[in-house]
Amino acid sequence: MRIQVLGRVTANNLELVNEFTIRGHGVALLPEPYAIAGASDGTLRRILPKWTSAPIPVHAVFLNRKFVPAKLQTFLTELSAWENSTWHKEHAAAAR
User: Fold this and answer.
1) pLDDT tens per residue, range 38-53
2) What is the dihedral of CA 62, 63, 68, 71, to 10 degrees?
3) Angle at 51 between CA 48 and CA 43, to 5 degrees
4) HSE-up of 73 (CA within 13 Å, CB side)?
5) Residue 17's CB: how many other CB atoms inside 10 A?
């Protein structure tokens, strides 16, 4: 199957990219949660089933100090629990 894609839209907002794709304005490289949700409700379709992107590293940069704000600690905890994260768990432990 061949699919012709015309035009070019770039955005740094995943919600916007997801919405453009759902509305039929092209193809997108989306994070797994968006792709799974779109595939399950029928709004998106995977067109390259044997292809996947390389992992995208995630970095959290913050001051190393004795007191870590609760919001930051919650973020680091969630980041380290993220199933597909390339975040190393020792970074989250260092923030405690």
Assistant:
1) 999 999 998 888 888 8
2) -30
3) 40
4) 10
5) 20
Residues 22 and 48 in one domain: yes
The residue type found at 94 is A
Residue ranges making up the domain that contains 47 = 1-52
Query: In sequence order, what E strands does the chain have?
Result: none
Q: What is this structure's pTM?
A: 0.56
Q: How many residues does the chain have?
A: 96
Q: Is the CA virtual torsion 47, 52, 54, 58 positive or negative?
A: positive
Distance CA 79, CA 86 (A): 9
CA distance 68 to 11: 32
Q: Say what the pLDDT of residue 78 is.
A: 83
- Specify whether 30 is located in the same domain as 72: no
